[in-house]
Design goal:
Chain lengths: ~250, ~100
């Protein structure tokens, strides 16, 4: 395998600087996402955050996921967000004033608590010297911290993409097929939800003389027992043959 | 002079918390939805980091599935938001207090 950026920099000082710069970009764009008043600006901050996370994927030896992140998130999902923003109108600025008193303060306090607990729970054992992937301490198992084994050997054996594809079509093939069904369901759901809610009175076939206000009387006239006289007489007899199809469904 | 794997986990925890705070303080449904996407991405970062720690590609496969499900979720969610805008002429979450239209 040809060495790529992630394999060349494993365990080196370049990874540290990459992490510092890209991590700062990710954090700054995340703060921008929740603080920007304009929703379009927030979407652009989201793009920046996705790009930073894609770089981190590449450093973490997930080359395939880095490319997928660029294509699916930065390419498709954010474009979908921007499309909906443009469709609904972007002139209104989102007001950041809280409706509940003290909402922002409480949310910030809860966020800090969540961060502390999450960081302590997940990152606690992985901060020692042995957790530096590809280092001597990690390879020999000495030093403090859970040793990071590193993906260099796995990726060098058959490549990241080939290994992922092998796993995807052997161990996870059932989940893969279910995912295909899920995508079809999502597409159908979006079509059904995005369809315009038709007013049934607009479904009258062209050329008929039925007015929408007479739809109830027309459907009443088509019932077998209902005579033309219990609705408005005269009008019901001439509208009975031009009854809209959905009038029968509604009776 | 290098990066322990825990630094990536701390960064992912920070991104997740920022996304959660964004969901709590923003009022536009679309921006809240973007913050949910941010939280999904931070979880993906955690999965990829743990895949590297354990020298196994299974975490990356799981992150791949998360990306696929997020794409499907965005499709349906944005269709719901467009429907909500048709009903209320607004994307403010505070205006949606009742289930009936």
């Amino acid at each position: 395998m040809t060495p790529v950026l992630a394999q060349a920099t494993e365990g080196g000082a370049a990874e540290l600087w990459t992490f510092i710069i890209v991590g700062a970009v990710a954090l700054g764009s995340a703060f921008g996402l929740i603080l920007m008043r304009n929703a379009v600006h927030a979407a652009l901050m989201l793009v920046l955050n996705f790009l930073a996370i894609a770089v981190l994927y590449a450093v973490l030896q997930a080359q395939f996921l880095a490319v997928i992140q660029l294509i699916v998130y930065a390419g498709a999902i954010v474009v979908l967000f921007l499309f909906v923003l443009m469709l609904l109108g972007v002139s209104r600025e989102d007001s950041l004033t809280a409706r509940v008193p003290g909402q922002k303060t409480m949310a910030s306090v809860l966020g800090v608590l969540l961060f502390v607990s999450l960081a302590a729970a997940t990152a606690g054992p992985f901060l020692g010297d042995a957790s530096v992937c590809g280092s001597e301490e990690a390879l020999t198992g000495t030093g403090d911290g859970v040793p990071c084994l590193g993906l260099a050997a796995v990726n060098a054996a058959e490549g990241n993409l080939r290994g992922l594809g092998f796993l995807l079509f052997t161990d996870y093939v059932w989940a893969f097929e279910v995912t295909a069904v899920l995508l079809v369901i999502a597409a159908i759901g979006a079509i059904v939800l995005g369809r315009r809610q038709e007013d049934p009175s607009e479904l009258v076939e062209p050329g008929s003389t039925v007015l929408p206000a007479r739809r109830g009387s027309g459907s009443a006239a088509t019932e077998p027992g209902a005579g033309p006289t219990d609705a408005d007489e005269g009008a019901a007899t001439e509208t009975s043959e031009a009854t809209p199809p959905e009038g029968e469904e509604r009776t | 002079m290098s990066v322990p794997a825990g630094y990536y986990l701390i960064l992912a925890a920070a991104l997740f918390s920022i996304g959660a705070v964004g969901v709590l303080i923003r009022r536009s449904v679309i921006v809240m939805f973007m913050c949910v996407e941010l939280m999904l991405n931070s979880v993906n970062l955690t999965l990829v980091t743990f895949a590297r720690i354990n020298a196994s590609l299974d975490g990356q496969v799981l992150a791949f599935f998360v990306i696929v499900v997020a794409a499907a979720e965005v499709t349906v969610g944005l269709a719901l938001i467009v429907n909500l805008f048709r009903l209320r002429a607004s994307t403010d979450a505070d205006q949606v207090g009742a289930l009936r239209a």
